């Protein structure tokens, strides 16, 4: 399961990974748009792509996946 989550994250573009990281940190679309100098519509599109590619049906699922990846990276540097 963890390997499947890691594989799915590796399918994200660099920008989608940035958006995912900022979403998981709790940033709003507006804040993400400001930080990445994008429109809110573009952030919404990236966020939708992240949710689809990560097969996450909720923000909680996405956060859990990100935590699992982070824990794995910490345990296996």
Strand content: under 5%
| Low-pLDDT runs | none
Biggest β-sheet description = none
How many beta-strand elements? Answer: 0
Helices and strands in order, then pairings?
Blueprint: H1 2-10, H2 14-24, H3 29-36, H4 40-53, H5 59-75
Helix pairs in contact: 2-4, 2-5, 3-4
List keywords for this structure.
single chain; 77 residues; mainly alpha; 5 helices; 77% helix
Question: What does the model show?
Answer:
The mean pLDDT is 96. 77% of the residues lie in helices and 0% in strands. It has five helices and no strands. It has 77 residues and is mainly α. The two termini are 19 Å apart. The chain has helices spanning 2-10, 14-24, 29-36, 40-53, 59-75. The longest helix has 17 residues, at 59-75. The chain is globular.
């Amino acid at each position: 399961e963890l390997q499947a989550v890691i594989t799915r994250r590796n399918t994200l573009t660099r920008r989608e990974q940035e958006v995912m990281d900022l979403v998981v940190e709790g940033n709003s679309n507006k804040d993400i748009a400001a930080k990445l100098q994008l429109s809110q519509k573009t952030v919404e599109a990236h966020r939708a792509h992240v949710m689809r590619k990560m097969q996450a049906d909720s923000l909680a699922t996405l956060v859990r996946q990100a935590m699992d990846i982070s824990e794995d990276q910490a345990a296996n540097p």
